[in-house]
Every structure is written in C-alpha cells, then in structure tokens.
C-alpha cells in the first residue's frame, strides 16, 4: 500500500509562515492566541463557547492523529515568528474535496495575512493528487471572511442553512465558495 500524500509541515511565505501544530509543546502559545482572540472570534465561531485550557490541550492532542490519517491538516499562522492565527483544511463530504478555515488574532487583521495564508495552503493542497477542489464556508453576515475566497478566485456555489451550532452573530445561512484544481491549458500553463 502506498504512503498517503500529505502537505508540508512548514510553508514559508517570507515574514509569514504556516507551521503544523507540535502537540503540547505549542500549548502555551496556542492557548494565549485563542484567549487574546476570544472577543473577536465569539460572534463567528461557535466552538469559542467551549474554550478552556482542557479544550486547547485536547485540540493539540488530536492534531497529530488527525494529520496522520489525513482528516485535518491544522497549521499555526506565524508572522515574524509570532503566532497570529490558525488555518486548516479538512475532509469534505466527497473524497476529492476539502474544506478550509482560517482566523486571525485581532492585531493581525487588515494586513493580508489571512489571504496569503489561505492562498499558500490552497496551493499546497493542490500538490496532493487526490485533492480536486477546495471549499470555504462562512456565515453570510461575516463579510470579512467572504473577502478571502473572493480575492483568491473562489466561486460562490451555494447558500445553505447552517448546521447547528450556528454562529452567535450569524444569519444562520452559510455561503459556500469553491476553487477547483487548476488544469493545464493547451499551451501548458495552468488555469483555474
């Protein structure tokens, strides 16, 4: 049986990098990042209601096994070596699709970091032969999250009722965006 293809554990983007979480070694930095971002995340991320030290430890403990089996690839987003956010890709409903998610510390917003990180992760995921498309979903009221897929050339493909628990400030309607794997053109260049 062939080894499963996985993304690189570190993706360098100059001053910004994506780095695979290193289990409990990252606990203090991950917990602090979440703690400092709670007010910013609370309106849009239902998981924030259950945030605790135990939740952060559990997240980090499960990250290694989820990475190993290909279910979830979780990354810390760093800028100049400091933790400024998280991004991930996880299995979609279909075997050739994956969902993407991202969030930033409030001090990192407005610098293009989420767009750069998401673009880098999308590029990395398309190096894996099994990945044919990526999707991003967000509540329709979260216009900041909508800016990222729009900038990166994703296409809105549907709107649907959010699966509970819904975001506290949300409309209850999720917008789903899709980006298909680029394919070679007749001239040998890639096109979406």
From TrEMBL:
InterPro entries membership: Acyl_CoA_acyltransferase, GNAT_dom, Ribosomal_N-acetyltransferase
Signal peptide (residue range): none
Domain annotation N-acetyltransferase: ranges: 28-182
Pfam families linked to this entry: Acetyltransf_3
PANTHER family the record matches: ACETYLTRANSFERASE, RIBOSOMAL-PROTEIN-SERINE ACETYLTRANSFERASE
Protein name from the UniProt record: GNAT family N-acetyltransferase
Protein source organism: Streptomyces laculatispora
């Amino acid at each position: 049986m062939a080894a499963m293809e996985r993304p690189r554990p570190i993706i360098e983007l100059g001053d910004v990098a994506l780095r695979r979480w290193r289990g409990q070694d990252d606990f203090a930095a991950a917990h602090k990042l979440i703690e400092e971002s709670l007010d910013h995340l609370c309106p849009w991320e239902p998981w924030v209601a259950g945030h605790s030290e135990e939740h952060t430890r559990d997240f980090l403990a499960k990250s290694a096994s989820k990475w190993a089996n290909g279910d979830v690839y979780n990354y810390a987003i760093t800028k100049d070596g400091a933790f400024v956010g998280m991004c991930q890709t996880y299995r979609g409903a279909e075997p050739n699709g994956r969902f993407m998610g991202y969030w930033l510390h409030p001090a990192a917003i407005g610098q293009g970091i989420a767009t750069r990180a998401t673009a880098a992760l999308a590029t990395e995921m398309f190096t894996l032969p099994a990945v044919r498309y990526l999707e991003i979903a967000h509540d329709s009221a979260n216009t900041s999250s909508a800016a990222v897929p729009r900038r990166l050339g994703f296409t809105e493909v549907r709107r649907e009722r959010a699966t509970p628990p819904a975001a506290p400030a949300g409309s209850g309607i999720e917008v789903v965006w899709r980006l298909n794997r680029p394919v070679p053109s007749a001239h040998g260049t890639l096109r979406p």
